[in-house]
Amino acid sequence: MANEILTNEVLKFLKKLEKNNNREWFDENKTVFKAYEKEVKELYGSILDGLRSTDEIEKLKMFRIYRDVRFSKDKTPYKIHFAGSFSRTGAKLRGGYYIRIKPGDSFIAAGFWDPNKEDLFRIRKELELDAAEFRAVIGESSFKKIWGDITGDELKTAPKGFDKAHSNIDLIRKKQFIFVRKFSDKEILSPDFIKNVTNSFIAIRPYFDLMSDILTTDLNGTSLLD
């Protein structure tokens, strides 16, 4: 695994972009942007190398800097961060990894951002049946030290067909099942940043393994992939 270190110039550029978020300024600085985009992509590539040593990763996707402003009140044309995701390979391996570089607000995330309605229903039915193993995995001390508590959007009350007084309703009403770890600017510029991100993603694997097992079997434990 290469040892790319992100330079502070990347963060300085993003701060300038935030103050000059218009096409004229961006066009004048596009060559500079491309150089920093390449630097970040190389950093993400090193993280991909580390992930592939312990997981099956299909691809790295680096998101475009251009914003979709069609349905947004904010009409600024450019994102003021770099972001990328890592997709796991195959139907048996569920969950995804994400990383964002933004001055003062960088983070990594892992989990299930937008499960389809079938997957969401299957997760909820599992939690309705028994959430003991789920709680044990996400409550393990070394896991919580890195990732903290589960987060994501959730309903204010029980989903249709579920008991609002159920003992696991705090989990059942979730629409997303995400973990987030924040990094300071000093941390992302550190030589240890790649290692820390890679180790954090490795630490999420017990959660991914459990969720993959849930999403590829029925409530009786019979595989849905055969």
From TrEMBL:
One Pfam family from the record: DUF2461
Domain of life, per lineage: Bacteria
InterPro entries named among the record's database cross-references: CHP02453, UCP028451
Lineage: Bacteria, Pseudomonadati, Bacteroidota, Flavobacteriia, Flavobacteriales
Xref: NCBIfam families: TIGR02453 family protein
Signal peptide: none
Native source species: Cellulophaga algicola (strain DSM 14237 / IC166 / ACAM 630)
Protein name per UniProt: TIGR02453 family protein
